Structure formats: structure tokens, C-alpha cells
Amino acid sequence: MKKLSLLLVFAMSLLPALSANSQAQDQGTPVQMTVTVEARHGNTPPEITREDVMVYEGHDRDKVATWVPAQGDQSGLEFFILLDDGASISLGSQLEDLRGFIDGQPPSTKIGVAYMQNGVAQVVQELTNDHARAAKSLRLPLGTPGVNGSPYFSLQDLIKRWPATTERREVLMVTDGVDRYGETPGQDPYVDAAVADAQRAGVIVYDIYTPGVGHVSHSYWLRYWGQMYLSQIAEETGGESYYIGFSGAPVSLSPYLDEVSHRLGYQYLLTFLPKPEKKAGLRRIKLQTEVQNAELVAATQVYVPAVP
User: Fold this and answer.
1) pLDDT, tens digit, for every residue of 83-102?
2) Could you please report the per-residue DSSP string of 68-136?
3) Which residues pair with 35 in a beta bridge?
4) Of 38, 44, 107, 239, which sits most exposed with the smallest number of CB within 10 A?
5) Is the pTM of this model over 0.85?
6) pLDDT tens profile 134-169
7) Domains recognised in the chain with CATH numbers
8) Do 127 and 283 meet the contact criterion of CB atoms below 8 Å apart?
């Protein structure tokens, strides 16, 4: 009887370790992503705490490890402005709006400027905290038809050469969104590839439609699909797409840029524990909150590393 009691005590002492080991096996490698909180009504969203955030993979709910406001020591941001060199010269009249946006960013934000040209991102200003220097690097687009075959190739090139960092990474594209290499409207593999690359790198994409030059500038068909592609890439990376319909360039970029700045001020760094998988890859997730007048906006997929 005494031996049986000792064995029982020993077995019970192992339970916490076994339980902890089982929980570790049930949870994958921590994944971090940037989330924007939107207000469904009005401009100011309510405060969200970690307990308010729910992360789902299908019907399964993942554990939220951390939920930190992107403020103070966590406010670091790398932000690229990516302009289409095939855009109409009308964009030149709006460069002051972009300069005002750059000057209005907090000191913790690094700004870079690049131009879409021949499928690559021609960087004219590397990421810098010197906002005056970044604003000065803006120039008129070349305005040459066909100089930028696909804005999505240029975005991929920028992401490929962007060093990894723990800070937020976000891009503003100003382009007509037309993919001149695409064949079947609505089923463009190059757009899908750019979305996947941005999701894998954790890059949020905003975009503003501005007309190009040449035939695309007056083709309703091409303008329509260009705007749809821009909407897709913004929606699936956690950003926002801005345009005024199919009539042409907006009179001013300032309202859109003010909206982007507003969104940057209501972002959080989310870390959650996904389901463990032996194969790394993009995983579709869904974020929810029950807090009234609040909506969580983020990429529809995140890259999850394999569990050894």
C-alpha cells in the first residue's frame, strides 16, 4: 500500500510537466503581424486590449500572446512611397501633397522613395529619418507610355530587396494599377504573386489610383481592372485603396494621405500562436473583436514557419 501511494504521488508530480509539453506541441511558432483598428462609425476607434482580440484559423481559435500599441518604443515604421514612372504628368501637380505627408510623419518613421520603371523599383531615396531629404527626392514621373510594364513586378522587386526588420513595413503605391503583362482580366497571376510576397514579408500596401499615359489613360476596360487589382492587393495585405471612380486623377492627394496617416496612428503589433505544422507557408486567418464600433483590419494570410 505504501509503495502504491508513493507511485501515485510520483505520477501526479509529472502531470504539470506533461501538460506543459502537450500545450507546447499544440501551439506553433509565435507569429507577429501589424493590425489596424478602424472605427465603424466616426473617426476614433475605441481602445482594444489583448483580451478583446480573437484570431481564427478556420473554426479553430489561436492563442493571442501579445497585443502592443505601435506607439512609444514600439512606434518604429519603415514606409516606402512607390510612384509609377508611367503616370500622367498631372501627378506632378500633387508632389507637394506627398511632401506634406512626408513632413508630417513622426521622427520614428523612416521614409523611402522609389519609382516603378521596367518592372523594378528604382530607389531614389533609401529609408531615412531625414524627412526633408526624402521629400526633396520626389520628382516628376517620366510620363512615357510603357515605361512601367507592371506595377506588381516593381512592388515585388522592392519587397525582395527590403531587409528584414522587427519594425512595421508599409508601402504607398501611386499608379494606374494596369498590368500590361496580364492576359486574363480578373485572373492575374502576377497580382496574386505580389500579394503573396507582401503577405510573406508582412508588408501592408496602400494605393492611390492615378491615370497613366497613352492608350490606358482612356481605356475604361484597362482602368477598371487596374483599380480592381489595386483594391485586391490593398485588401489582402491589410491596407486601403483610394480612387474617385473612372473619371481620372484626383484633384488632390491630401484627403487620401490624411487617411493613411490616421490609420498609421491606430495600429497594433499582434503576436499569436498558430496551429503547429511541419510545412512552412502562408496560412489564412481571420481577426475578430466583440468591442462595439471597432473592426480589426489585417492581411488575410500570414507566413507561418514550420515546427521542428
Assistant:
1) 999 888 888 889 999 999 99
2) EES-GGG--EEEEEEEETTB-GGGGGGHHHHHHHHHTS-TTEEEEEEEEETTEEEEEEEEES-HHHHHH
3) 268
4) 107
5) yes
6) 999 999 998 776 576 789 999 999 999 999 999 999
7) 28-71+268-304 (no CATH), 75-264 (3.40.50.410)
8) no
